[in-house]
Amino acid sequence: MDRLLQSIKIGVNDKIYVKDPESSSLGKRIIEDSIIMIHDMGFDKFTFRKLGDRIGSNESSIYRYFESKHKLLLYLASWYWGWLEYQLVFATNSIANAGDKLGRAIEIVTQTTEEDSSFSHINEVMLNKIVIHEYSKSYLTKEVDQENKEGYFEIYKRLVGRLSEMIAAVNRKYSYPSSLASTVLEGSLHQHFLLDHFSSLTDCQEHTDPTDYFKNLVFNCLNKPNHV
Fold first, then answer.
1. pTM of the predicted protein model
2. Whose C-alpha in 89, 92, 151, 186 is 20 to 30 A from the C-alpha of 109?
3. What is the per-residue pLDDT across 110-121, written as a single tens digit (0 to 9) for each?
């Protein structure tokens, strides 16, 4: 899978950026260093001016790629969900049993992220932390409906759709596959956030983790044995 991923480009809606950052070394540097900076200082304190100082480039050169830091956050989140989608597709493609496939899919979307050497300019571990802490800022805006119409959240919605189809394949009579799928994805971010900051509010600690919790939740909802 690693060799195959090296030849894959994660596709992001071209309306999100002015110029594709993957098309130049400067663009890749913008992505690489913005991930490090947002991870270290938080999205609210991050600015294009600070990024320009770090990479030794004019602030205006960054605006040639992204018209705002909001669009940059949308790009980073979209890239992350696209990367996660590839992990899910490759990990489950050869699994025939519907329950086993769903169990593996839950593992992929809820497990602790490990760095992927296939994309040298993107630190997936840091990016995962950014998504956990900052993703809601990409859609809790007045412009969310318009941005949704323009397809800014298409990759995330597609990932929910894939998981929803796997849930339905296990139990066709279950009435809420999309609701459960989106709960798993959003809930995983929340559980990892609680682990980092409010550990007393989650049971996902020393002897278990979010993956175990969500497997238990999903398969109990579907009235099926828990696939471990």
1. 0.92
2. 151
3. 998 987 777 788
